[in-house]
Amino acid sequence: GQTDATALVFPAAPTVGQQQQQQQHQGPHQRQQQQQQLGQTDATALQPDQLTDLATLQQHMSHLSTQPVLTPGPWCSLVPLFGNHFLPCNSIPGVVPNGLQSVPVPPTISDFHLRGGYINGHIRSLGDLYKAFVVINRAVTTQQPHPLSPGGISNADGELQYIQALVAEIPVAWSQATLDALQHPSVHPPLRQQQSIPSAPVEPSVAEQHVEAMLVSRLGWHGLPGGKAVSIAKLTVKAATSLQLGHVRSMRQSRHLAFVQRALGTPDSGALNVAVKQLHVCMRKLWKVIKWDNLLKEVYWRMTVDGLPTATRMHHADSKCLCGSVCPGLQHHFWDCPIATAVVDVVLSQLPPAWCTRTPGSSPLSRHHVWLMQPPAGPTGVHRNAWLVVCLAAINAMDSGRKVANTYQQRVRVQHAAAVAALQPAAAPARPEDQPAITNFFQPAVPTAEEQQHNAAVQQHRQQQLEARLQQLA
Fold it and tell me: Could you give the CA distance from residue 229 to residue 218 in angstroms, rounded to a whole number?
């Protein structure tokens, strides 16, 4: 499932100014201890190719949300190129946006027909990409064949276009930090003197794993109840299930809002939001406090999400209630119908004046008192949990009346159809000549006179043989 809210609030990354202020207040020993602690933390919570494995997780969850990571630095040269959710990929043909992880990676480097198939099997990090760019660009400039393929110059030219498309998607700050790291005097050989495309090992190095861990720690999802966020490190089965059911939760919220608006009959958004929260509190009490059969509570749960099979919901425009109402819905069956009115009258008859204030000319019990299970106003008032039981019983009584009325109507329709059929004249039996010819074809044929004489002779001969056999046995 997908969720609409995908912006995850992460701990804000320190800016360059903040980092400089922190370093001014810290001594050399504290800075060294902090770096060692950061490296140990990253190494202990690390798994190989973490960002690449997240592509499988993203297929079953909402899109991962990211925040601009730490201030670019030498670590950018070790950033994973493929499977990195921090790198966009919007202009490469045939590639899905929002991640270079969607760039196809061939299983072997022998797939020469795939665009970029030569270097995808060799490079891993952003630094490897720029080293490959220098080598391929030199091959194109000097009219040399591709360093990894036996083909001609056209292979290197196509590979260069692919690399340029990748480089265009890299953030400018990351690219500059990577170039600065590769052009540092301590790097050997220098970037401009790179002669061959680097071959990445099967497993990432420790330094690459540290960078991956830093990036993974800043990934997560937003969409939990209450607007909460969860990071990958703290993702649990409960949180993942809640993320997958985000669209279901949103739909249920909209159904609850429509139900409350129908119960109150007011478009006031402030009153609706308060009533929706009270409805959620009421439903939690029904399932946690009221010890009753859940089958009786299910009717109310389905009522709040408009899940009962009424004629309005089932789009039966020609259906009628037993009272004559056309295409009845939730409002009719649970308030306007004479069956529902009779249930409300029974509840009113059991409410003394101390529990429910009577006002001349108006009913002391309104629709929201029953639908939202809010006790009516009175000098003493009704106990809230007791009123929950009363409203639950009343709603089940209305639903039972709806079912009985539907059953009675179906029985009346069947009896009416049988009476109409009895008044119709009986159809004349079909004549033999009206039967299909195929029926006569499979009927046994009447034997001729010669066939009858032959059959009689055979029967007489068999009888004689049987009598002779019996005499022998005697």
Answer: 12
Return the SS3 of 306.
Answer: coil
Helix, strand, coil content of the chain in percent (nearest 5): 55, 5, 40
Q: How far apart are CA 122 and CA 132, in angstroms?
A: 9
Kindly report the number of other CB atoms within 10 A of residue 329's CB atom.
18
**Residue 127 Cα distances to 50, 53, 76, 123, 187, angstroms:** 19, 21, 8, 9, 12
Sheet holding 219-222, edge to edge: 65-66, 219-222, 229-231
Residue pair 164/173 in contact (Cβ under 8 Å)? The answer is: no
**189: preceding bond cis by omega (within 30 degrees):** yes
**Residue 343 pLDDT level (bands cut at 50, 70, 90):** very high
Most confidently modeled range among 217-226, 280-289, 373-382: 280-289
Phi-psi region of 114 (alpha: psi -120 to 50; beta: other; left: phi over 0): beta
Is the confidence at residue 145, as pLDDT, over 50?
Answer: yes
What is the C-alpha to C-alpha distance for residues 165 and 88, in angstroms, rounded to an integer? 11
pTM (2 decimals)?
A: 0.57
Q: What residue type is assigned to position 333 of the chain?
A: H
Sole residue written with tokens 């004249």:
425
Q: How is residue 302 written in tokens? A: 């389905």
Q: What confidence score (pLDDT) does residue 351 get?
A: 87
According to the model, what pLDDT value does residue 426 have? 65
| Residue owning tokens 């991956």 | 212
CA–CA dist 77, 177 (Å, integer): 7
Tell me which residue of 63, 62, 65, 66 sits closest to 245, measured CA to CA: 62
- C-alpha 354/C-alpha 358 separation (Å) is 9
Assess contact for 89 and 98: CB atoms under 8 A. Answer: yes
- pLDDT value for 165: 76
Residue for token pair 């709806």 = 402
Indicate the Cα dihedral angle 69, 73, 74, 75, nearest 10°: -10
Does residue 300 have a pLDDT over 80? yes
Residue 67: name the closest of 228, 277, 267, 217 by CA: 217
Stated as kind and residue range, the H or E segment containing 164 is helix 153-169
